[in-house]
Write a structure and sequence with these properties.
Layout (H helix, E strand, L loop, with lengths): L1 E5 L3 H12 L7 E6 L17 E3 L2 H6 L4 E4 L3 H6 L1 H6 L3 E4 L8 H14 L3 E2 L8 H7 L4 E10 L22 E7 H7 L5 H9 L6 E7 L6 E9 L2 E9 L1 E2 L2 E5 H14 L6
Parallel strand pairs: 1-2, 1-4, 2-3, 4-5, 5-6, 7-9
Antiparallel strand pairs: 7-10, 8-9, 10-11, 12-13
Amino acid sequence: MRVGLVGFGAMGRALVRSLDSNGAAERLSIVAALVQPNDAPLAGIACMARTVFTTETGEFWRHDPELVVECAGHSAVRDFCPEVLRRGRDLILISIGALADPRVEATLREVAAKSKSRLFLPAGAVGGVDFLASARLAGLDRVRYASRKPPRAWKGTRAEQSVKLDELTDAVEFFHGNAREAALQFPQNANVAAAIALAGVGFEKTEVTLKADPSASGNEHCVVAEGAFGRAETRIAAKPLPDNPKTSWLGALSLARAVLNANARVVI
């Protein structure tokens, strides 16, 4: 399978390292990566042996990827990804929070339906998306998501407008609202909120709480759901990516799993 990458920052690099460590070169080849000028190739990655790094979309498409993987942020989802689906290619998104913009979500759904392409949304750094999607079939009454991260994970975000991150000695809740608000206000931190919303009760009904906590050793995610099925709670304490403390390492692993599943005969 020929794979194209859109973006090659911390998430993209973690993705290809995960693929390489799982022997993906036998099943797929990353033929092209659409990158920023300062993005650098990784040496010694088998599935990227013949990868072309380019800043030009025309050059990217000349290598004819069958599957495109987005790991470049909300702007790439909005500006580039509709063309991926329009060309009939399957697309995996990691920046799921971009779908909190109703126009973006509607565009991608419409283009995918017309071109008969598929849009894959991996769970990212959170657990429980599978049970949410299953429980929704019987009816969900309430879904709550809480994120707790070290202060450094919130630097460069709107959290700095209400919290002095460098001076925290205790956990501080700086956001409480719905998943749409969280995903749009914190595009680098709250893609998980969007995944939970899409799997469960929707953006408006999904309750979200965000905290900065100097005692947090990693990025913690808790999902609580109640409905006809009963009640369930999942809690994950994930290590952040070394290159990007805003993102959990598990998010990159979830993306790698989605890529492997796209070319697998047995899918879990």
